[in-house]
Specification:
Organism: Rattus norvegicus
Family: Belongs to the class-I aminoacyl-tRNA synthetase family.
GO molecular function: arginine-tRNA ligase activity; ATP binding
GO cellular component, one term: mitochondrial membrane
Helix content: 40-55%
Low-confidence stretches: 1-8
Number of helices: 22
Mean pLDDT: 88
EC number: 6.1.1.19
Largest sheet: 5 strands, parallel
Radius of gyration: 29 Å
Structural class: alpha/beta
Number of strands: 16
Length: about 575
């Protein structure tokens, strides 16, 4: 009795954390919920596994079934509950319909979640340099994290921190004066600035005079020369204008386009502040450093100023962090950048701490691995646009070769959305930290666990709803969804909030990806076996309800990942 009493005497909120929906199994029918007996007996942690198993067994025998719970059994250290089928069906479908895009987010798991102000810095390409695959990963991962945080009710600010300052602009300014064309700059700024940059770098290796001119140009920029600044400003404005158009194709926006240039003066203030605290030290080479070692023996230093007095990336990052704290008063700031930057961020956060900013604890670097072997038909990836065009043209070819492709008004747009889904799912399937070998063929497999499969499932479910309209939906009897295929789907829908919760804890998209792939597989099986056509109205209605719920949750999950669901393909 003590143990039966223990279950009932627990406050509901501690039970919620101990109960979870049972993952669907291909091999056998499973129960709906399980209660971890270990977590109930947390306070008696010296219990052996056998004791726990024994407790589970005894509990299962003690607890009585009722109108809600139709079966209770003991699993390995768990109690398994089976819920009255009609009740389960009604509750899940009603919840999905009522909560719509908020399904899973209104769960008790999130009930005590305080609403925070969160800044996410992601994408961050350099003007006139290649937009490489690392920037692409940062862009889609950052967008996912921002989407997830926003869905959970936080106030999110999305920042793109552009590389728009530094010696490269000395070269670029000089290069443009030598080889630039106004009309090319207007027509295709990113491409033209890149070409100019490549050409001027070539010249500079042979001609010391070009290097000298470049240094002079950058020096003029640093001093605030109006002519030099006006040219720089045009490079920046035109580049950002073009980037905005490209991000739009990805379905991504930013609240702020910030840049290193913005912190060129503020970083001088940071240096003065570091100096006033006695934290600056000069090296033999004349560079100015801050000691960030735990031991104070200069075993780890961060350079904050070159010997010629110019500021560095790290100094500007410090200034940016302090400025953002003032401007947004964030609770958390997340930087999405590749794992090669790990040490850089550790040093920046450490320096903020040394400067007395306790909020440095709430700054976080989300690192990701390297993608190898991503090439387009134009060769190495130079621009984000190359990737998007490649995705679009490969997907169009794919769609042309598939017999079931529907005639549609805008095949290019659909191809791009499906292709992007494929790219994103390929990227999000593993842990963000893992490196992976890129393969276009694998991205676009029509069979198997790909983004194409998710989009295809979504489109099929859309056309099912379209074909049978909403005529059936009023007529709906929960008793008509007893088949194992329906039950598996309902059980899987039950787990969505837990998957969102896990993703919110570790910021890894793979949990949502594998959930949606399983949902799509379950839907494919159900689509084959649970006919809507030629079924009695109430059966057809019930099945349509079920498929509509699947489509709704599928769309919710895809949107969180940064994918735009398509209704025809």
């Amino acid at each position: 009795t003590s143990c039966g009493f223990l279950v009932l005497a627990l406050p509901p909120e501690s039970l919620i954390k101990s109960i979870s929906a049972v993952p669907v199994s291909k091999k056998e029918e499973v129960a709906d919920f399980q209660l971890s007996v270990d977590s109930l007996l947390e306070n008696n942690s010296h219990k052996s596994q056998l004791d726990t198993q024994d407790q589970a067994q005894r509990l299962a025998e003690k607890l009585k079934c009722d109108t809600v719970v139709t079966a209770i059994s003991a699993g390995p250290r768990t109690l398994n509950f089976k819920i009255n089928r009609a009740l389960l069906t009604k509750a899940v479908l009603q919840q999905v319909t009522e909560d719509g895009s908020k399904y899973g987010l209104k769960s008790e798991l999130f009930s005590d979640l305080p609403q925070k102000r969160i800044v996410v810095e992601f994408s961050s390409p350099n003007i006139a340099k290649k937009f490489h695959v690392g920037h692409l990963r940062s862009t889609i991962i950052g967008n996912f994290i921002a989407n997830l945080k926003e869905a959970l009710g936080h106030q999110v600010t999305r920042i793109n921190y552009i590389g728009d300052w530094g010696m490269q602009f000395g070269l670029l300014g000089t290069g443009f004066q030598l080889f630039g064309y106004e009309e090319k700059l207007q027509a295709n700024p990113l491409q033209h600035l890149f070409d100019v940059y490549v050409q001027v770098n070539k010249e500079a290796t042979d001609d010391k005079n070009v290097t000298k001119l470049a240094h002079e140009f950058f020096h003029r920029l640093e001093l605030g020369d109006t002519q030099a600044l006006a040219l720089w400003q045009r490079f920046r404005d035109l580049s950002i204008e073009e980037y905005t158009q490209i991000y739009k194709r990805l379905g991504i926006y930013f609240d702020e386009y910030s840049g290193e240039s913005f912190y060129r003066e503020k970083s001088q203030d940071v240096l003065k502040l570091l100096d006033s605290k006695g934290l600056l030290q000069k090296t033999a080479k004349g560079n100015v450093v801050v000691d960030v070692s735990e031991t104070g023996d200069l075993s780890s230093v961060c350079t904050v100023m070159r010997s010629d007095g110019t500021s560095l990336y790290a100094t500007r990052d410090l200034a940016a962090a302090i400025h953002r704290k003032d401007k947004y008063n964030f609770d958390t700031m997340i930087y999405v950048a590749d794992k090669g930057q790990k040490r850089h961020f550790q040093q920046v956060f450490q320096m903020l701490k040394i400067m007395g900013h306790e909020w440095a604890e709430r700054c976080q670097h989300v690192p990701f691995g390297i993608v190898k072997g991503m090439k387009t038909r134009r060769g190495e990836v130079t621009f984000l646009e190359d990737v998007l065009n490649e995705v679009q043209s490969r997907m169009l070819q794919n769609m042309a070769s598939i017999k079931t492709t529907k005639k549609m008004e805008n095949p290019r747009e659909t191809a791009e959305k499906v292709g992007l889904a494929a790219l994103i799912i390929q990227d999000f399937r593993g842990l963000l930290l893992s490196d992976y070998q890129f393969s276009w063929d694998r991205v676009f497999q029509s069979r198997g666990d790909t983004g194409v499969f998710l989009q295809y499932t979504h489109a099929r479910l859309c056309s099912l709803e379209e074909t049978f309209g909403c005529g059936y939906l009023n007529d709906f009897n929960v008793a008509c969804l007893q088949e194992p295929q329906s039950v598996s789907i309902l059980q899987h829908l039950l787990r969505f909030d837990e998957v969102l919760y896990t993703a919110s804890q570790d910021l890894q998209p793979k949990h949502i990806v594998s959930y949606l792939l399983t949902l799509s597989h379950l839907a494919a099986v159900a689509h084959k076996t649970l006919q809507v056509k030629d079924s009695p109205p109430e059966v057809a209605g019930a099945r349509l309800h079920l498929f509509k719920a699947v489509r709704s949750v599928l769309a919710n999950g895809m949107k969180l990942l940064g994918i735009t669901p398509v209704c025809k393909m």
